[in-house]
Design a protein that fits this description.
Elements (H helix, E strand, L loop, with lengths): L25 H5 L1 E3 L22 H7 L5 E3 L6 E2 L19 E4 L11 E10 L2 E14 L7 E5 L8 E3 L1 E2 L1
Parallel strand pairs: 1-2, 4-8
Antiparallel strand pairs: 3-9, 4-5, 5-6, 6-7
Length: 166
C-alpha cells in the first residue's frame, strides 16, 4: 500500500490599511489666492503695486464680502509673522502698502479649525501702530503654512495691506 499525502494550501489574507484623508474644507477650495510679488516682505524697499498706489486690503476685502484668501506664489505662503518697518513719510513702505499688516498670534493646529487672530499694522517705526483688525484663520491641511485668512474688522483708514512671507 502506498501512502498518499494531500498538499495543504495556506491562504494568507493581507489587509491593506485604509487611511481616510481628511476632506479639504470647502472654504479652502474656494479661497482666493493673493499672488502679487509686491505683497511679500521686501525689507523696507518701498515696493508698490504695479498701479503705483498703496494697497488697501482692509477696505477692498470688506467691500468684496470678506472672502477667504491665502498667500501663494510670489506673495509668499503665509501671513507675515513679524513686524517690518513702514515709513510712510519717506515713501519706504514695504509689501505694497503704507502700513504692513502682520500677526504673530498662534495659528490653528487641526485641519478645518478656525482661530481668530489680532492683526497689527506697522507704521512710522511703530510695530503696533494699528491694532484694531482681526482675522479668522483656518488650517486647510497638514502641509506647512497651509492656512486661509478672512478679515473680520476693517481699519479706519486705508493703505493697510496684508503682507506675506515664506
Amino acid at each position: 500500500m502506498t501512502a498518499t499525502t494531500t498538499p495543504t494550501t495556506t491562504t494568507q489574507t493581507t489587509t491593506t490599511p485604509t487611511t481616510t484623508a481628511t476632506p479639504l474644507p470647502a472654504e479652502c477650495r474656494s479661497a482666493i489666492n493673493l499672488t502679487e510679488y509686491w505683497r511679500k516682505d521686501h525689507s523696507d524697499s518701498g515696493i508698490r503695486p504695479v498701479d503705483g498706489n498703496y494697497n488697501c486690503d482692509t477696505r477692498d476685502m470688506i467691500a468684496a464680502g470678506r472672502p477667504w484668501f491665502r498667500f501663494a506664489g510670489p506673495a509668499g505662503n503665509r501671513l507675515l509673522d513679524h513686524c517690518i518697518p513702514s515709513y510712510w513719510s519717506n515713501n519706504r513702505g514695504s509689501c505694497g502698502t503704507g502700513a504692513a499688516l502682520w500677526s504673530n498670534d498662534q495659528m490653528p493646529k487641526s485641519i478645518g479649525s478656525v482661530t481668530t487672530i489680532n492683526v497689527y499694522g506697522s507704521y512710522n517705526s511703530n510695530c503696533k501702530w494699528y491694532s484694531g483688525a482681526q482675522c479668522e484663520v483656518m488650517r486647510c491641511s497638514n502641509e506647512a503654512h497651509d492656512y486661509i485668512y478672512r478679515i473680520l474688522s476693517a481699519t479706519s483708514t486705508c493703505n493697510y495691506g496684508f503682507c506675506g512671507m515664506n
